[in-house]
Amino acid sequence: MDNISKSEQTEIEAAAFRRLVSHLQTQTDVQNIDLMILAGFCRNCLAKWLTAGAQEKNISFDYDKAREQVYGMPYDEWKEKYQLKATPEQLAAYEKRQKPAR
Question: Are the C-beta atoms of residues 94 and 33 closer than 8 Å to each other?
Fold first, then answer.
């Protein structure tokens, strides 16, 4: 990426982000807790990062709007349609991931 402008790099990164969001919107079987266990972030994290990025630029961008952008629908609707209750195994794996390694 040495031969591209800052603007081109931003456009490429934005395209990759849009592709990630689109992919997550189609992978409704992948639960947020699974993402947190495996990758340490989830759809809600992406929405929080969008909101924080807007705030850094002094742009008003509400968290609920950010979640709607990430989920492709209002969060409550996505939750009702696709979110499952976390299993004891998922909760244990999540807790294990949260603890620092010794």
Answer: yes
